[in-house]
Amino acid sequence: MPSQAVIGRKFNTRRRRCIRRCVGCFCGVLALLCIAVGVGITFAFDYVFQEQLKVMMPLANGSMSYRGWSEPPNKITFQIWLWNVTNPKEVIMGQRPVLQQVGPFAFAERRYKANITFYPNDTVSFFEYQQFFYLPEKSCGNISELMITSVNMPYAVTSIQMKAVSPFLRNIAGRMFAQNSGGLFITRPASEILHGYKDGALSIVEGMVRRFLPHMPFQSTSGLFIGTNNTHKGQFLVHTGRGNLSSFNRVQRWNGEPELSVWPEKSANKIVGTDGSMFGPGVTSSSKLDIFSTDICLSLHLVYEKPADIEGIPALGFRPSPEIMLNATLRPENKAFCLESGCLDSGVLNISLCKGGVPLAISSPHFTNAPTYAKAVIGVSPSEEEFGTAICIEPNTGFVINAQRRMQMNIMLERISGFTDTEKLIDPMLMMPLMWLNESGRIDPVSAELFKAHLLAPIQIVALAQWVIIAVGIVWISAVALTCSLLARRRRRRRQNRPSRQIVLNRMSDDSDVTADAGLIRKLQDPNLRESNIV
Length: 535
What we know:
Strands 1, 2, 3, 8, 9, 10, 11, 12, 13, 14, 15, 16 and 17 form a 13-stranded antiparallel sheet that branches. This protein has two domains: 16-57 and 446-476; 58-443, no CATH class. The chain is built from eleven helices and 17 strands. α10 (445-525) packs across α11 (527-534). The protein is α+β, with helices and mostly antiparallel strands and 535 residues long. It has helices at 4-56, 66-70, 88-92, 153-161, 167-180, 190-195, 200-212, 371-374, 384-387, 445-525, 527-534; strands spanning 75-85, 99-119, 123-134, 147-151, 185-189, 197-198, 221-222, 231-239, 251-254, 289-293, 298-310, 313-320, 348-350, 360-363, 390-393, 400-414, 429-442. A hairpin with a 4-residue loop joins β10 and β11. The chain is elongated.
């Protein structure tokens, strides 16, 4: 029958096992709870964050986005490089143009919205004005003294516009422009090329127009950026984002119309996307983003390029889809931009219909990605990395925190009889670069620090807390699993050792009996021990 000590030991062993199991179960449940809390924090914070954005983001006087939308705080720099033609006489005789890049001519650009009117259907209308301030310290030289040889725009444009009239009238117009305007090429200060000058031939035409057609608007000055300073680009109507943040700042109408009437194809006339200053919150690399540009009368689709870091703010980098620059053979939708004489090769886009018939085409600077036209001139150095357009967007808010719009303006020269300077051009249609620009804006360091402190820091803290709690839960589960594994191994070893211990105990018991008998025999045989025992 088992002794009281043996029963006590068995009871204590069972109690310790029960305690260990309870502690293990408790730790396991607590660990799973930590993981669940960690995952739940993400969903809870995302929900609260999205609900706050729905309240704070929509355009309204005093909202989080209103101030930056009405007058962007980022400093915008507008840089221009002019193409100087170093061999104008040779070009007229049929040789390739040799071009020299002159610039930059730098300007500080300010944008602000005026006549802001909100409507009950969650839309707002406005006019956006642009102002330019010359920065001589950031320019290549004195803009009023640097002489540039460039295409004489009045001569070139008139030749194109008169190609369908009778040769007799073309000859008269060609001689008049050659005598009073200077032929196909002119040499003038850079300031006049950009901001405008009074053309002699146009002044004669202006006098005739005012005499016979007094109500017809006519301008006798010519310049690449004439009439662009402190002016607007038409009236915009955009969605405020209230009730639907995916429509935030998306253009609904321009100059009162829901679509354009510029291009012969309906798809090209669609007004899609924002004005490019802001996008809706929650931007991802797979987001479908579009920009409506009044400069070229088109909506441009953006494609994701790569992640970016702007002043310590994680951002997503996008660029315009290259499809818009493909020829009509590769992309049939682009046949809307073809000329009457045919379609242009890839890399350039005809915008003459957007510019009132002026034969202009845009491309990337230095004819990047336009090999056909890059080979037709000397002096360009195409580079996708140096001359590409990029837009970096903060994904949580949709704010544009860095952008570079790089674009080259070209004029399409054609051989037109009667305008003698064009009759021997090297190609029937010569794509002649006029200038290229880089319009860039970037969030300043002070604004970046405020942005990180008020928006990114809470997001990062919540993300850190989430992973810490999940990590603690995983560690606890691992510790519980390891402890249970060690205890199970220990029990298995005890079970394996139990039979051998019993054998050892039996042997020890037998040995003790033998030892006791041997001692008794010695006592009986020893007289002294026997007498002492008797006594």
